[in-house]
Automatic annotation (TrEMBL):
Name under which the protein is recorded: Isoaspartyl peptidase
PANTHER family: L-ASPARAGINASE, N(4)-(BETA-N-ACETYLGLUCOSAMINYL)-L-ASPARAGINASE
Lineage: Bacteria, Pseudomonadati, Bacteroidota, Cytophagia, Cytophagales
Domain of life (superkingdom): Bacteria
Amino acids binding substrate: R207, I208, G209, D210, T230, G231, H232, G233
Sites marked Cleavage: G178, T179
């Protein structure tokens, strides 16, 4: 008897003031193609019987390697003109998690977070300690120029002598949310979430956002859902967004869509928090709510056609 359940994958590449007017047709095509490529990599793993953890990790690696997104190679510059990256990954079956923050020159921070999950007794490592662990585990490092993109450098140059910081993907200075992430449920019903980011342009050095904080920007629990967030991290931390959605499902009996909509469109919005998230439930339900003008996103549910979108539909 086939005991496989419906499997599904969803991803995001950041949210913010993303409008049709803000992207050239060429950039629109490039973003959609990058999202489709990442989606297909993760979906193929699930289709071939692979587990959710491996699927979300592989999906996020593709997004980290693409300079269009503010994670890995395309990370933004901080106040000191450097790249400090955060990442987290979580497995819903065991509640095992790995996270890193403030790491420099690590090619794929999500792979380092995965090493923390699989090969350490810890959940969360930062800065030099995380980098030393990376070297001991054979994680790839790259020189500074690998992470240099002209667009990110120009963003930083415009702000470097001010106290203004800027989030990603926007035409305005305070509404750019750059993070990548993926969530999945596999054929065995196991859930996983992975998130990675370069943070905010001109952010204070050593600033930590919601991405690597388990329960804020990243969470997975087989009883409920897997969540990966993108937005103004300070608000997502204060509202413990990812875990709040899980709690609404577990304790109030809400569906994933109901819980995610309540948090994103009511709780976050009422406090001034902007952004969005992708989520998947153990039954294969997918939710991709956002309260900003756009969010790079995609989903592929078994038996359905893949979906990629950018703007408000």
């Amino acid at each position: 008897m086939d005991t496989k359940r419906p499997f599904a994958l969803a991803l995001h590449g950041g949210a913010g003031t993303i409008t049709r007017a803000s992207l050239t047709p060429q950039l629109d095509r490039e973003y959609r193609q990058a999202l489709k490529q990442a989606l297909s990599i993760g979906y193929q793993i699930l289709r071939d019987g692979g587990d959710a953890l491996r699927a979300v990790e592989a999906t996020v690696v593709v997004l980290e390697d693409c300079p269009l997104f503010n994670a890995g190679r395309g990370s933004v510059f901080n106040k000191q003109g450097r790249h400090e990256m955060d990442a987290a990954i979580m497995y819903g079956k065991t509640l095992g998690a790995g996270a890193v923050t403030g790491v420099r020159n690590v090619r794929n921070p999500i792979l380092l977070a995965s090493e923390v999950l699989h090969h350490s007794d810890h959940v969360f490592l930062c800065q030099h300690g995380a980098e030393e662990f990376a070297r001991n585990q054979g994680i790839a490092f790259e020189p500074d120029d690998y992470f240099f993109t002209q667009q990110r450098h120009e963003q930083w140059q415009a702000l470097r002598d001010s106290n203004v910081y800027m989030l990603d993907h926007s035409e305005t200075k305070d509404k750019k949310f750059g993070t990548v992430g993926a969530v999945a449920v596999d054929g065995q019903g196991n859930l996983a979430a992975a998130t990675s980011t370069g943070g905010m342009t001109n952010k204070n050095f050593n600033r930590i956002g919601d991405t690597p904080i388990i329960g804020a920007g990243t969470y997975a629990n087989n009883r409920t859902c897997a969540i990966s967030c993108t937005g103004h991290g300070e608000y997502f931390m204060r509202h413990v967004v990812a875990y709040d959605i899980s709690c609404l499902m577990e304790y109030k009996g809400l569906s994933l869509t109901e819980a995610a909509d309540l948090v994103v469109h009511k709780k976050l919005k009422e406090s001034g928090g902007e952004g969005g998230l992708v989520g998947v439930s153990a039954t294969g339900e997918v939710a991709m709510p956002f309260n900003s003008e756009g969010m790079y996103r995609g989903a592929w549910v078994a038996g359905q056609e893949p979906e990629v979108a950018i703007y408000q539909e």
